[in-house]
Amino acid sequence: MRISVGIFLIAVGGIVAFGIRDTSGPVDFTVVGVVIMLAGVAGTWLSYAVANKGRTDESLVIRPDVEQQYRTDPQSSPLSHQIDVTPTEYRERH
């Protein structure tokens, strides 16, 4: 069932549930309409879940070997020189 079929079932169920006011027969059209609407909601959700079950956002996941490559520990590898963080306009000219 595609999403469009689920939306169609929701619309038809709404028309049957709220548009038909025939109480003379043994069938309660309000209940039938609500059941059709629930089937449409379930079908829409199911088709969305099936269509997107294989999708993952790979850009948010960092592989462990790549993470290890860029991991730094300042205590284990101190810099051999000091880093000058003074803005360039305030540095002394050599």
Q: What does it look like?
A:
The protein has a domain of 51 residues. By secondary structure, it is mainly alpha-helical. It is built from 3 helices and no strands. Helix 1 packs antiparallel against helix 2. Helices cover 50% and strands 0% of the residues.
Provide the β-strand percentage band.
under 5%
SSE string, helix = H, strand = E? Answer: HHH
Straight-line N-to-C gap: 75 Å
Mean pLDDT: 80
Count of beta strands: 0
- Outline the biggest β-sheet: none
* Rg (C-alpha, Å): 32 Å
| Helix proportion range | 40-55%
Derived structural class: mainly alpha
Which blocks of ≥5 consecutive residues have pLDDT under 50? none
- What is the number of helices? 3
The shape is rod-shaped
What keyword list fits this structure?
DUF6458; 50% helix; rod-shaped; 94 residues; transmembrane; 0% strand; mainly alpha; membrane; transmembrane helix
